[in-house]
Each structure stands twice: as structure tokens, then as C-alpha cells.
Amino acid sequence: MPSSPRGRREAADYYKDRRRRKVCTFCVDKAEAIDYKEVNKLRRYLSERAKIEPRRKTGTCARHQRMLTIALKRARHVALLPYAPQHLRP
């Protein structure tokens, strides 16, 4: 590493930009299945526009993201969760 101030600043910027990896909450809880009736838990994975949040934002693993998507769609189908943002309750 060079002793110039510019070299140290670049190295500090590199480490500052790295973020901590998100952990799948379902893996931590050792969840085997995701229930579509747990609306409060599922609502956390919807955006303010009632869209399903992506893995990179929520930190869920691929397996649980697939299960989560199915549970969210089922909850929407039985009108437990909204399809559109106009139907969200504050």
C-alpha cells in the first residue's frame, strides 16, 4: 500500500462500500414451510406499492424466497393481502 494519502483513501473507500451480508430470517428460525395465513409476517416482504420485495433487499435465501412468493400469492388470492397499493391499510 503506498504511503501517499490518495492510496489510503482509496483503500478506505473500498472497505466502506462493502456491506454486511443479509441473513435469511426463515433459515434462522429453521422454518420448513411459510404459512400464507401469517399476514403480519408476510406484509414485511411487500413494498409500499404492494409488490414482492426482491431477495437482494430482504436477504432471504433462494429456497425461502420461492416459498415466500407462493405464500404471498396465496394470501392475495384469498384477500388477506392486497394486489394494489390503493388497498393497503396504514
The helix/strand class is mainly alpha
Reading the helices and strands in chain order gives HHHHH
Instruction: Please count the helical segments.
Output: 5
Instruction: Profile the largest sheet.
Output: none
Set out the fold topology.
Elements: H1 5-17, H2 25-28, H3 39-43, H4 55-58, H5 62-77
Account of the protein in words:
The longest helix is centred in the last third of the chain and has 16 residues, at 62-77. This protein has 90 residues and is mainly alpha-helical. 47% of the residues lie in helices and 0% in strands. 12% of the residues are buried. It contains 5 helices and no strands. The N and C termini lie far apart (52 Å). It has helices at residues 5-17, 25-28, 39-43, 55-58, 62-77. The model has no long low-confidence stretch (mean pLDDT 85).
Summarize this structure as a short list of keywords or feature phrases.
single chain; mainly alpha; elongated; 90 residues; 5 helices
Describe the structure concisely.
The chain has five helices and no strands. It is an all-alpha fold.
